[in-house]
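Thread amino acids onto this structure.
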């Protein structure tokens, strides 16, 4: 055997040095990922987190105990008589007075396909600055509470020389820059355009109090809501229309 054959050629040694061990399967798989794959995974994770958060908040009921008069033992005043005896003068009611009156005079009933598993538990009014929040409390099954609310902003317009009371389903801080808050499912805020479907339900509630509605319409009353501060109670002022 010659020395040349024993030690090999330089070119053969270079080829041996350039060879690489086989790649691990996980490394091969990782290389197949690209920007779009990572972007799709990121979008999916973000969407899942947002969806879980939304569903959790939808099934987290509002705290009804902070609505004055909703669950206390105080007796209700005769609001229709007080309103009628005001003779068109400005009058006000506190949040507690409104909710005690609703508690003793209003019974809500669940209708539709959910009536099999759900039933109405109560209805309350929470007063904010400039608007009122009507909250419906339901029981699903034996002990699961679920709340739905709609924000109500009232204003007056003059038509044919007479005041007309109108309502918008909005109130509070906007959900985004241009999307008005219309209410909530649980503690999850929903846009105003999505709660307008509750208009018939609100009309049904008003139909339970025809005497009060008639007095408000005849006297041209417009509600103004003020949230209580510094020990003062939240209240609504009914201000009669005064032509300019």
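Threaded sequence (244 positions):
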């Amino acid at each position: 055997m010659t020395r040349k054959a024993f030690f090999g050629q330089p070119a053969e040694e270079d080829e041996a040095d350039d060879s690489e061990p086989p790649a691990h399967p996980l490394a091969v798989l990782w290389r197949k990922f690209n920007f779009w794959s990572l972007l799709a995974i990121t979008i999916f994770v973000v969407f899942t987190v947002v969806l879980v958060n939304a569903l959790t908040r939808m099934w987290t009921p509002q705290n009804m105990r902070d609505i004055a008069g909703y669950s206390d033992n105080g007796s209700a005043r005769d609001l229709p008589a007080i309103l009628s005896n005001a003779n068109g003068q400005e009058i006000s009611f506190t949040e507690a007075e409104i909710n005690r009156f609703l508690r003793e005079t209003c019974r809500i009933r669940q209708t539709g396909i959910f009536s099999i598993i759900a039933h109405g538990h109560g209805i309350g009014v929470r007063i904010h600055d400039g608007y009122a929040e009507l909250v419906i409390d339901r029981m699903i099954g034996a002990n699961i509470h679920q709340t739905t609310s709609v924000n109500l902003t009232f204003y007056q317009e003059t038509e044919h020389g007479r005041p007309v009371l109108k309502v918008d389903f909005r109130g509070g801080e906007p959900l985004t820059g241009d999307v008005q808050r219309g209410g909530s499912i649980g503690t999850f805020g929903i846009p105003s355009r999505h709660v307008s479907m509750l208009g018939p339900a609100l009309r049904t509630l008003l139909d339970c109090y025809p005497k009060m509605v008639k007095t408000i319409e005849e006297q041209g009353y417009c509600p103004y809501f003020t949230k209580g501060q510094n020990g003062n109670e939240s209240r609504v002022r009914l201000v009669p229309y005064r032509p300019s």
